[in-house]
Structures are given as C-alpha cells and as structure tokens.
Specification:
- The protein has an eight-stranded mixed sheet with strand order 8-9-10-11-15-14-13-12, with no helix packed on it. Strands 1-18-17-16 form a four-stranded antiparallel sheet, with no helix packed on it. A four-stranded antiparallel sheet has the order 4-5-6-7, with no helix packed on it.
- It is mainly beta and 321 residues long.
- It is 8% helix and 37% strand.
- It has helices spanning 34-47, 66-69, 79-82, 251-254, and strands at residues 4-6, 89-90, 96-97, 108-113, 119-124, 127-134, 152-154, 166-172, 177-187, 190-200, 205-213, 224-231, 237-243, 261-269, 275-284, 296-300, 304-309, 314-320.
- The protein contains four helices and 18 strands.
Length: 321
C-alpha cells in the first residue's frame, strides 16, 4: 500500500529521501505554502478570541476560498423518518398493523454503499441491528419494494438488545461480503477491534465468521472508527482501519491534533487456525488533517481518500500514492 498524500500534491523531487519507518512523519508528502499560511492565520485568529470553534479550529470563513472549501448540504433526513414504515404489515382485509420501532434512538456510526448501487448499509454503535436505506433517502418501506432498494432493519443473530460498538462497515468486493467492525472489545486481557464477515439477507444478517485485529488499544473507547478496502499494484487487497484518537491512543496523547494514524491490515490465519488481521503498517495521516479526532473514512477509485472529524466538523481530502 502506497502512503497517503494530501491533494493537490506538489511535484515529487528527483532527490527522494530514503524510505521512512511506518510511523515517521516523512512517510507522507505535504502540500506547502497557501495551506500552511491559511492554518497559521486561523490559529492567530483563535488566539485573538475571534471565531472561537471546537478543538481550537478557526472558522472557514477566514479563507478567501470559502465557497470552494465549504461543503454545501444538499439533502438530509432523520433515521426515525427513514424507518417510519418498518414493521408495518397488512392483513387480508387490507388493514395496516403498526409496530413500534425497535430503537428509541439511532446512533448511526458508519455507512457504505451496497453492490447493487441503490442503497446504503448503516451500522449503529447502540444496536446490533443493521439498517438498509434507499439511496434517495425516501421513507418507502419493504411493503413497497423488495431487495436492496428498501428501508429496513436487519436482525443480528442472538441480538439481546445490548450495544454493539459497531463503528465501521465496509463492502469487500473480492469476497462479496460486508465487514462489520467493533471499535474495541476485551480479547485476552487487551482491548482489540473485532471484524465480522457478514451477508445481508432480506430481513436479517448472516454472520459468516469473525477475526480479531492484532493491535492493542490503550483505551476501550478510542479504537477503530472507520475503514476502507484498498488494492495494491499486484491486486492484493488490504483493509485500512482508521484510529479515532491521534497516535491511535486515548487520553491526552489522543488529543494531540494532526497526528492521525491508519492501520494497514492483512487477513491471515494464526497457528491455532483462527482468523487474524495483522498490522502491516501503522501509517501517519498528513498533519494537514489537523483534527482532534477521526470519525470515518472512504476511498474512491482506489485513489481519492476522504477522512472526517466529528470534533472538528470537517472533511480532509487526500490521495493514495
């Protein structure tokens, strides 16, 4: 896997430095000039008490390129509305029977597109249910259509109503399955992420297996927060997992902004025969992603990378080199 590089990138130097270690800041290229100058202006504005914002970030309106640097909301809808018809059925007389939603609130933590392209799958960190939502965000239910185009909640086997700690869902094209990732749970006395191979059926989720990520987190609530699949030049697939905290840590070190990390993972089989995702690289996200936390990621066309921050309400765009 090639390292990330912020877009737009500067021209590579003909006198390239020697290869860096996985956690070395020089592993990634950095854009220079205007961006660095803009960040300096924002920090200066904050120090003067203007445009105060969470995590010490200045307002984007300080930028002369505000329009080109600011996301515009096109459409939104609530998940309660989206699933408003879930569980409704009609008897032989045509009378509709209404059922209450199984969740009082939907703490959505990640989503990904389905292979058919007409819906998205959504995971919630407060439930084992998996949502399947129409891409157009309309509130039509499974009584209207069938297949991946409907809004429904898929049952997880053995669901006892407890929180799931699901923080990421990824579609693995090579296997035709989804990967659902628990942020971190106790495994052998250490806090590690767990990845489930699942298949989304019409009304339920089929769990095909699970793998532990061979990486111990220092904090139970600062583990894997997002993920994406990438493929190298030889066609080999890797799972790239996004750490929520800076340095992949919790506490004060995890709030050391601009030190985001991703874990490049490869699926292997341990000596005992169990499935394990081993860390092939702990790679640094460029410091231009100057975030307090990292909440989700997506890779488009095996090239473009988007990483979001919940604390900073911002999106960083980069490239896979």
């Amino acid at each position: 896997l090639a390292p990330f590089h912020p877009a737009p990138s500067s021209s590579p130097s003909s006198n390239a430095p020697a290869p860096a270690t996985a956690d070395d800041p020089s592993l990634f290229g950095e854009s220079s000039s205007p961006e660095a100058s803009f960040r300096k202006k924002k920090r200066a504005a904050n120090s003067n008490g203007r445009f105060a914002a969470p995590a010490g970030h200045g307002k984007d309106c300080l930028s002369e390129d505000f329009v080109s640097e600011t996301l515009l909301l096109i459409h939104e809808t609530s998940l309660v509305r989206t699933f408003s018809n879930f569980g409704h059925a009609q008897d032989q007389r045509g009378a509709e029977e209404s059922h209450a939603l199984p969740l009082g609130k939907f703490e959505a933590s990640d989503l990904t597109g389905t292979p058919e392209g007409d819906a998205v799958a959504v995971v919630f960190d407060n439930s084992l249910l998996i949502g399947r939502v129409r891409k157009d965000l309309s509130a039509r239910s499974s009584t209207v259509e069938s297949g991946f185009g409907v809004n429904t909640l898929l049952e997880w086997p053995g669901d006892d109503g407890s929180d799931s700690q699901f923080e990421a869902i990824v579609y693995n094209e090579s296997s035709g399955q989804f990967l659902v990732i628990q942020e971190s749970v106790e495994v052998g006395g250490e806090m590690k992420a767990v990845i489930f191979d699942v298949q989304l059926l019409a009304n339920s989720t089929k769990v095909l297996g699970k793998c532990v990520v061979d990486f111990a987190f220092s904090s139970g609530n600062k583990g894997v927060e997002g993920a994406a699949m990438v493929t190298d030049d030889q066609g080999k697939s890797y799972l790239v997992a996004l750490c929520e905290g800076n340095h992949c840590e919790g506490g004060k070190k995890g709030r050391d902004t601009g030190n985001g990390r991703v874990l490049v993972l490869e699926r292997t089989v341990a000596k005992g025969g169990e499935c394990v995702f081993e860390v092939r690289e702990k790679a640094k996200i460029p410091a231009s992603a100057d975030f307090m936390d990292y909440s989700a990621m997506s890779v488009y066309g095996n090239k473009k990378v988007a990483i979001t921050s919940q604390e900073n309400s911002a999106v960083w765009i980069g490239e896979v080199e």
